[in-house]
């Protein structure tokens, strides 16, 4: 199930990026080559970029690929590392949860507001933040559970392993 979810998010990212490239490149060709253009290109590519950002952030968090500063963590004894893992995962889960709640509220509010060019409800854009933040909160909660139980793996940098290692 986890691999299927990751594959679905990867395909969402691929399709979103591909559609953005087609929209922007096609609009450039139309503007400079034919002195016309697609009105929806700029707005739709901006909305797709928001979806791409949240899907990518959630996927990279699941794979443990975000940057981390481990100077202090490396200097701590194993018990101190575990305490830091618990605290950082709890803070990450809380922040992601707050973002998810706020984005859900904005999604509901934004469904009544339409984008000026595409007439898409703006709630669709905020939905990307709600889904991405919810997924990130879930990943943080999983890592928090592993850290509290003392089962958190440690990668080469000393960070809590929040992802399955890819072959």
UniProtKB/TrEMBL annotation:
Annotated organism of origin: Achromobacter aegrifaciens
Membrane topology of this protein: Multi-pass membrane protein
UniProt keyword annotations, A-Z: Cell inner membrane, Cell membrane, Membrane, Transmembrane, Transmembrane helix, Transport
Membrane spanning stretches: 12-32, 44-61, 82-103, 123-141
Role this protein plays: Part of the tripartite ATP-independent periplasmic (TRAP) transport system.
Residues annotated as domain Tripartite ATP-independent periplasmic transporters DctQ component: 20-149
Protein family (similarity comment): Belongs to the TRAP transporter small permease family.
Family matches, as InterPro entries: DctQ, TRAP_DctQ
Complexes and interactors: The complex comprises the extracytoplasmic solute receptor protein and the two transmembrane proteins.
Domain of life: Bacteria
Keyword set includes Coiled coil: no
Name assigned to this protein: TRAP transporter small permease protein
UniProt subcellular location: Cell inner membrane
Transmembrane helix in keyword set: yes
Subcellular location, principal: membrane
Record-linked Pfam families: DctQ (PF04290)
């Amino acid at each position: 199930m986890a691999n299927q979810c990751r594959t679905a998010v990867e395909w969402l990212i691929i399709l979103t990026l591909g559609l953005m490239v087609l929209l922007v490149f096609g609009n450039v060709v139309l503007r400079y080559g034919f002195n016309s253009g697609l009105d929806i290109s700029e707005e739709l590519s901006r909305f797709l970029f928001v979806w791409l950002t949240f899907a990518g952030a959630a996927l990279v968090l699941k794979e443990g690929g975000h940057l981390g500063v481990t100077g202090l963590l490396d200097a701590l004894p194993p018990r101190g590392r575990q305490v830091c893992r618990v605290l950082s995962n709890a803070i990450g889960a809380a922040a992601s949860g707050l973002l998810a709640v706020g984005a859900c509220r904005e999604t509901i509010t934004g469904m009544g507001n339409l984008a000026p060019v595409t007439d898409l409800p703006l709630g669709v854009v905020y939905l990307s933040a709600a889904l991405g933040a919810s997924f990130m909160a879930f990943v943080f909660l999983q890592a928090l559970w592993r850290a509290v139980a003392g089962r958190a793996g440690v990668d080469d940098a000393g960070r809590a392993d929040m992802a399955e290692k890819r072959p």
